[in-house]
Design a protein that fits this description.
Elements lengths: L1 H7 L5 E3 L13 E3 L1 E6 L4 E6 L1 H13 L6 H8 L3 H16 L3
């Protein structure tokens, strides 16, 4: 959750554009592309970030407005533990395990 924690502090993030991290990045974050590769011992696909994509994201971040990002903070608030519990878990558990 470091991506969400950074945004909760108002910091824009640079993260990968695959797996869950893409869903954890707000609109004013920068996503980097990756190169797929097959990991034979684990029998699974992985991705390694493309260096050129990282450099591009760093350039954009350098050119961006400095300071605390209200957009990042607003985005991160949706992951507040109390909100997730009351708005998502309680209804799910009530449906899944009715009294």
């Amino acid at each position: 959750m470091p991506v969400v924690e950074a945004q909760a502090c108002g910091t824009r993030v640079i993260t990968s554009s695959w797996c869950a991290t893409e869903d954890l990045a707000g609109e004013d974050s920068w996503l980097v592309a990756g190169q797929e590769f097959w990991d034979e011992p684990q029998q699974a696909w992985f991705k390694v970030p493309n260096v050129s994509s990282i450099v591009g994201a760093l350039r954009l971040a350098y050119q961006a407005e400095r300071g605390v990002s209200d957009g990042a903070i607003k985005f991160a608030r949706q992951f507040d533990a109390d909100r997730v519990w009351s708005d998502l878990w309680v209804p799910y558990l009530a449906q899944r395990f009715p009294l």
